[in-house]
Amino acid sequence: MRVAIFLSVVLVFIARAATAQWLENPHTLTFSRPDLLRTQAAPQSRTPASEISHWLFPNINVTRSETYGQYEPSVVAYNKHVLIGLIDDSDLANLSICTSTDGGLSFERALMPQRTNETFDEATDPSLALGHTTDGYSNAYYVNGYSSGLPNVIGCFHSSDFGNNWTQLTDVYQNLQGSDTSSDKYYIAVDSVRDRIYVTWVEQAGEGYTSIVSSCSTNGGESWAARKHITGLGHFTCPIPAVAPDGTVLVTFVDYFRNNRIFVSRSTDGGATYATPQIVGTYVNLGPLLPDDSLGYQNIGTPDSALAVNSFPSIAIDRFNIHAYITWCARGADDHPHVWLTTSSDVGQTWSTPQPIETDSVSTASARFFPWIATGSRGEVAIAYYASTMNTVAPKPTGDDHLLQADLFMAHSTDNGATFHTRRISNATFDPLTGEAFRPVENSILWFFGDYIGLATTDSTWYPVWCDARSGDAEIYTSIVQPFAPLPVTNLTLHDTVINGKPSFVLSWNYDPATTFGYPLSSDYQFLVTKDTSTVALLSGSTLHIVDTNISAHEYHVTVLAGRYRSITDSIGVKNSVSPYENGGITISIGASPARVGHAETLTVRTKEDSRVAVTFYDELGRALLTNITDGVTGNEHTICATPNVAGTWFYLVREYAGPVIKEVTGKLTVLPQ
Questions:
Q1: What mean pLDDT, rounded, does the chain reach?
Q2: Domains in the chain: how many in total?
Q3: Residue 629 and residue 623: Cα distance in Å, rounded?
């Protein structure tokens, strides 16, 4: 959502320098938002691919807008087309749409069209879905809310060309007089087989109570049935619908007020009626660290500066083996935060006991939050979520708090959610306390980072979409994740030799035949070796070196090919350069390259300003090997020493702490056996 967090309260955004208001009495809702002086239209912009090519999962900055905040993305994908809807503070009255035709490598960003029948001050809560046509899933639907004070509507747009052009459809629901009820948190699901569109939302019913409602269209959104109440009055929010292959509609939602329960309701008659909601899980809040005000909000961080989080559920249905999945984040009996999953193999009639799923190796996670689930074309299921920790290396400038650090992870399963392989997806750790939106609570500050993220897949390529603050402001990122793509080679080295009296090179490497998510790789993989821009050889998986008697090349490249997948390319120059390089105002010199196991390695880091620095080393799977190594010095020159203990390709992340924004530089280091 953009304005109202539907915990029977309303969050009102205002300018960064001012303080927002949190209504302690939720009996009356308001959708007004003070002028942010942000009236210019979102620019048409094309974003290039990730600048960090060696990371297994390229990170793509979708919005590239550090001037305005972007939040709460919704994503769909089909073939090479990726659509992302999002809240864009460059224009409060309209949401944005980002379109990609090259598999997510680049995006065009534009505002959704203006509504023609009513003018509203603010647009909220984007939701996207694809509908089947004879040429594939070219039909796209975009649902969101519009409001001016209490009057509000749920608007719907349609595109028949993968999101390039949009047509306004009939409103799903209208409350123009403001005398009936107000609405929030709209989400859409499409049943292409039966030509039905479902939209669910939460309604404020007065006196602090809410209910979950749904509406259905049987003619492509040209008209909508009268809303159906899935629940009676209670303290419910965040309904997410999903449609099974047999037409069964499942809607999950949460009771956030004291009971803390996750519900699901079924409809087997096209949304005409819904069964009594059943409880599929209970939960313990991730927070709060700040005193609970009986409204049920959660927060993480520290009492001085905390982040608003939630335990809203997400649902997905596998159309191939007819498994349904619901996930949420909460604390367990061990008092640690977990990503929880419950599954159903009978179209939502019965559900398994919820189990924690994360395998991200973040043992010190202070929270895991905002999970989103999706299913794939091979019977796969995946969950994207944030994992956060507290940074104990560098305090904030005030000296009385520590930075909250967050990363985006994705868990992937090929056995109906019985086991998961998890990888870190974000290639930069960021502080979600961006200052884009906040409110005072109990004489402290509670910051806002949206209420949800997104995840979509097409042909076993996954697109997690999240809100990222590595620039210091909230922007939307995505990544291209292929769990079945091969890992790159490791220990790529170049040796001088002599062949028949002629100076030559021996290019060698090691290889662990596995995919990026740790699945076994079939034996038919090959190594593509290129020299500069020319192909040298295509070698079988049993060959781990090549001899070159023509030493005029500048750089060698090795890529692993496995079926239709290819790995990230590893490269090595004819001359190993250990000269300093500069990135983002940070200059780094490496003592020895390649490094060796058991031998101390030195990184000399120079910054343009006095600061503290810390270095974390990762392996090629994004797993931390050495964490937050620091010299403990505040200055502009730092010597960081570390002793590698495992051979392979190491990636390092240098963080500079010189204020509220973290500067980061990443690089690669080859570590040879001892």
A1: 82
A2: 3
A3: 15
577 vs 631, residue with greater confidence: 631
Residue 666 has pLDDT above 90, yes or no: no
Indicate if 166 and 89 belong to the same structural domain. yes
Residue recorded with tokens 């750089």:
555
The DSSP code for 225 is P
Closest CA relative to residue 408, chosen from 374, 362, 456, 364: 362
Cα distances (angstroms) measured from residue 502 to each of 194, 545, 549, 556: 72, 18, 7, 19
Which structure tokens are listed for 428?
A: 């930069």
Where does residue 379 rank: exposed (0-12), middle (13-18), buried (19+ CB within 10 A)? Answer: middle
Q: Measured between alpha carbons, how far is residue 208 from residues 25, 67, 152, 230, 572 in Å? A: 8, 36, 18, 18, 63
- Burial pattern 68-102, b for ≥16 Cβ within 10 A else e, equals bbbbbbbbbbbeebbbbbbbbbbbbbbbbbbbbbe
420 and 528, same domain (yes or no): no
**For residue 655, is it within any domain?**
yes
**Residue 301 within a domain:** yes
What is the pLDDT, as a whole number, of residue 462?
98
Domain containing 513: what range?
Answer: 490-573
pLDDT digits (tens, 9 = 90+) for 319-337: 888 899 999 999 999 999 9
Instruction: Give this prediction's pTM.
Output: 0.83
By mean pLDDT, which of 189-203, 272-286, 433-447, 513-527 is the weakest? 433-447
As to burial, measured by CB atoms within 10 angstroms (0-12 exposed, 13-18 middle, 19+ buried), residue 65 is: buried
Residue among 103, 61, 57, 58 at smallest CA distance from 83 = 103
